[in-house]
Amino acid sequence: MSGFAYVVRDGKVSSPEIKQALGQPGSLVWIHLTTSDDHAKAWLGGAGLSPYVTEALTAAETRPRCDPVEDGAVINLRGLSTDEMTASDPLASIRMYAAGGRVFSVTRKPFSALAPVQKRVESGQILDPGDLIAALAQEITEELDPVVAELGDSLDDCEEQIAAHQAFELRRKVNATRSTAIGYRRFLYPQRIALEKLAALPGDWLRDDDRLHLNSAADRAARMAEELESIRERSALIHETLTDLRAEQIDQRSLIIAVAAMVFLPLTFITGLLGMNVAGIPFAHSPWAFWGVFWFCVAIAVAITGYFVQRHWFPK
What we know:
single chain; 7 strands; 7-stranded mixed sheet; alpha+beta
């Protein structure tokens, strides 16, 4: 188990050991743990947190949520991680409990938004739990915004390549984009609800400016969720278009093969008939027989090809 602690008191910021920070007074005491073992559960229980809060902070599977607990709240948010994540679970979680002047947070994987928020705490820009949670929510949405925009740009490129008839190279890219969008939307939609619920909670530990920042982060999360829904729908349409193009190309190639077979079928019959090793084949000893048969076959091939061209059987 690893982590850090900050204590903000009278505008001054200190970073004591985690155990020492528990008993120190201040407008903000932030204790963060990075862990995936049962030791964290025992430590949080010993820090005076209720079993419900301890279970919420250490749960293996979480979704964005906000639940009021006595005079505080349990908040779970999702954001980008520096570790490689799965397609079904692309965002790392941070679980927080805020009450009075204390904030306990727990992550199981590296959380990208933590480092910028730590710098803001150290520079004295964050003075209370409301500032801290609002800063985390804003940092999460600011990091996700360009990622979601990049997914949309990726689909734009796919649509341009479809217009350029590069359908076969796009199927994997479209499927990957769609899978990523579904994974992000799975957490961004409930995260928007959690932020809105948090902004509406009663309590003195959330000031008016904190609520405004939380509502702003919720609006951005809602916009990203809507964009991801649009990306998912566009991906499905592009996938259908690629499937249609693939079927059309297969039909065109099958038609070319069928036409070629129709052209060479009578030629194969004639050459096979005249190539039998039996007596009585006409003109077998005539010097002009080979070229006569050759030009006769050419004439038949041209006639059959001309017929198909006139009937518009050849694909454009």
